[in-house]
Write a structure and sequence with these properties.
The radius of gyration is 29 Å and the shape is globular. The longest helix is centred in the N-terminal third of the chain and has 34 residues. It is α+β, with helices and mostly antiparallel strands. Strands 3, 4, 5, 6, 7 and 8 form a 6-stranded antiparallel β-sheet that branches. A 6-stranded mixed β-sheet has the order 10-11-12-15-16-21, sandwiched between helices. Strands 1, 13, 14, 17 and 18 form a 5-stranded antiparallel β-sheet that branches.
Length: about 550
């Protein structure tokens, strides 16, 4: 009994001593681990605690961490990122294929929101908003002339489905504002902006992202074109920065026979996973040309790489971006998330597409496309030194290179003659788009009478719209330069007609008009019509010549 009483009396002291010893051992072990190059988590926690307890000013530690975490994660590689809850909401909306808003496409002209297009069946169409309208007020607050940004417009116009927003609309020639109340609704985000027949047998599909709805949209596009007699496909991935890996592999599966390797991924703690074609694709026998450029990245490169390595079709254009890192996403309770690079993906031939990067130099990495432009990669055969890149062989024995994006089978340069200084000036100032909106305002009654974009386009071809555009730009300070204007005539006219047509027919009319003078599209059509749109001996010689030029 006395022994039990003594034990009870000493027990609290024994526990306290045990805790102290445990803390001492833990701290000693932490210091040892950090100095040995192992985890330094305890030191990191100690730093945070020291800041929280002793910093000269009061500090919101939650806000401090929100600012610190992005730098910590982004220091790993260019594609590991931390996203706030607000950023994740926007990213999810973009890739999942829908958001809640009023359903308009817009651009900001002189601090004024100009409606460029109306989403069919959306809230704005139901409320009577028209392409060309200017949004001057939102819920009685003036937004015109307030140096508003695109992000500011989105913040003003998006909101919960079912909520209402009152817009003050200026519509020429009416001098008074029109008040329109729009009930926000669910708006689809299209990952496929165009699917149309260029010739009686050739169809083009423009894919702008790989999101949650991309594969279903792609299947619908294929079905639509095949019903119109499509036998050959042009898949345009220019400017497509990627998205979901599953969307890319599902899309690729439509073109490959059973058993062909599409892509595989592997990392230090990420066991190799292979993706093979199942043989259920609907386009295994159709000719295929894929268009890429310097902004085609990630999932776009997976699609193009699988087509190239399996000798399934031709890749034409310019070297792609070079993003071959795989991210895993972890979402936190507050809606924020971290995307951590966990693996690299490899094409069927075993090549990595990821280009070189240096830790801490993410800005230089992101600016690579600009650097390549400045050193002439887009105007001539890509200047990257293939001699220092590892060669691989496609299933048919052609040489391809890993380590810096997808090299196209046929290099198509940017047309430096057409894209001259006058063209660059008038485009960079936004005057083509601006004049298209002005022309639409002045001629809306006449232009609205056409029953198809084809009829409208033919009408515009007979109008002096380019001369009027040149006069408009001249009044804005870009002087006439007849020789340069003549060089860019066809392209400027196509873009201008495309913008005008888009006001009435959306992307369904815009891309067919805009692509009339597109050199990649025209080359793809030529290859398909002449039977050279496969890695045959004839095309292979052209490819080998391109390789010889790169390697000297």
């Amino acid at each position: 009994m006395n022994t039990e009483k003594r034990l009870r009396a000493w027990l609290p002291l024994l526990i306290a001593i045990g805790i102290v010893i445990g803390i001492f051992i833990g701290n000693t072990y932490s210091i040892f681990n950090f100095s040995s190059g192992k985890t330094g988590s305890n030191k990191f926690n100690s730093v945070l605690r020291y800041i929280d307890e002793s910093y000269v000013d009061s500090l919101d530690m939650s806000a401090f961490l929100e600012d610190a975490i992005p730098s910590l994660v982004e220091g790993l590689d260019p594609h590991s990122r931390y996203f706030t809850s607000e950023q994740m909401l926007r990213l999810t909306e973009d890739l999942e294929g829908h958001f809640s808003g009023i359903g308009v496409e817009f651009f900001v002209q002189k601090d004024t929101i100009v409606v460029m297009g109306i989403i069919n069946g959306g809230p704005s169409e139901a409320a009577g908003i028209m392409a060309g309208d200017r949004i001057v007020t939102v819920n009685d607050s003036l937004v015109a002339g307030k140096a508003i940004t695109n992000a500011g417009v989105v913040e003003n116009l998006r909101g919960e489905s079912g909520s209402k927003v009152k817009l003050g609309i200026y519509r020429k020639p009416n001098p008074d504002l029109i008040e329109i109340i729009v009930t926000r609704g669910d708006i689809p985000v299209n990952s496929i902006e165009a699917a149309y027949m260029i010739t009686e047998e050739i169809g083009l599909i423009k894919v702008v992202k790989f999101g949650g709805n991309t594969f279903n949209d792609f299947i619908s596009a294929i079905s639509k074109l095949k019903n119109q007699g499509c036998k050959s496909f042009i898949i345009d991935l220019r400017g497509n920065e990627g998205g979901y890996l599953e969307a890319a592999t599902s899309m690729t599966n439509e073109f490959l026979p059973k058993g062909d390797l599409i892509v595989y991924a592997e990392g230090r703690s990420f066991p190799r996973t292979d993706s093979y074609a199942t043989g259920t694709g609907t386009c295994k026998e159709n000719d295929l040309v894929v268009l890429i450029d310097e902004l085609s990245a990630s999932s776009s490169e997976i699609f193009a790489g699988a087509v190239q390595d399996n000798d399934r079709g031709l890749i034409i254009g310019r070297r792609s971006f070079g993003k071959g890192l795989v991210q895993s996403q972890r979402v936190y309770e507050d809606g924020s998330a971290m995307r951590l690079t966990v693996a690299r993906y490899y094409t069927a031939s075993g090549r990595s597409i990821q280009r070189n990067y240096e830790k801490g130099k993410n800005d230089e990495y992101e600016m690579d496309a600009v650097y390549r432009y400045m050193q002439g990669d887009y105007a001539d055969t890509d200047t990257i030194d293939s001699k220092h890149m590892k060669p691989y062989e496609t299933m048919g024995g052609r040489t391809v290179y890993g380590g810096s994006g997808i090299m196209p089978d046929i290099f198509i340069p940017r047309d430096s003659v057409v894209l001259n200084s006058y063209y660059n000036s008038i485009m960079s100032k936004g005057y083509v788009q601006e004049y298209a909106a002005y022309y639409t305002d002045m001629n809306r009654d006449r232009l609205d009478d056409f029953e198809s974009w084809i009829e409208l386009n033919e009408y515009l071809k007979k109008q002096p719209i380019l001369l009027n555009l040149v006069s408009y730009a001249d009044s804005k300070g870009i002087r006439r330069r007849p020789y340069l204007i003549n060089e860019s005539r066809d392209l400027l006219e196509s873009i201008l007609r495309g913008f005008i047509v888009r006001h009435f027919w959306g992307y369904d009319g815009y891309y067919p008009v805009y692509f009339e003078s597109d050199n990649l599209v025209n080359k793809a059509v030529e290859l398909l019509e002449t039977g050279k749109a496969s890695p045959s001996a004839v095309v292979n010689e052209e490819y080998k010549e391109s390789v010889r030029e790169r390697t000297g």
